[in-house]
Design goal:
seven-stranded mixed sheet; alpha/beta; globular; 122 residues; 2,3-Dihydroxybiphenyl 1,2-Dioxygenase, domain 1; Glyas_Fos-R_dOase_dom; 2 helices
Length: 122
């Protein structure tokens, strides 16, 4: 059965991503890149990305959603099919990239949740 296997990332909206990235670097020692992201490599197969997005990003969906969680999944297509059958709100768009496949669902509170099936070797 297709399922979540871990947390792929946590994304925050920021009024000033550059300044906020600097704060995380300076005060918490988080090695944020210049564009406000860092990927932690826990094992060869497990990573978690922490990234800052502009306050006006449409990537999260509704403007009031300040945080979006990205869950790593083992079979995106099967999971989306099962969620649709259970009347979960599944957004129609998906994305294939060098990083893998992405899809999005909306939880009962209206939060957009990103589902990520990593590309082989990621």
């Amino acid at each position: 059965m297709a399922k979540v296997t871990g947390i792929g990332g946590v994304f925050l909206r920021a009024r000033n991503p550059v300044r906020l990235a600097g704060w995380y670097r300076e005060h918490l020692g988080v090695p944020m890149s210049g564009h406000g992201a860092v990927t932690f490599h826990w094992t060869a197969d497990e990573t978690t990305t922490f990234a800052l997005f502009a306050n006006d990003t449409e990537y999260f969906g509704e403007p009031g959603q300040r945080v979006m969680v990205n869950f790593r999944v083992d079979d995106l297509d099967a999971l989306l099919t099962r969620l649709r059958a259970r009347n979960v709100e599944v957004l129609p768009q998906t994305e294939d990239s060098e990083y893998g496949k992405f899809g999005w669902v909306v939880d009962p509170e209206g939060n957009r949740v990103e589902l990520w099936e990593p590309a082989p070797g990621m």
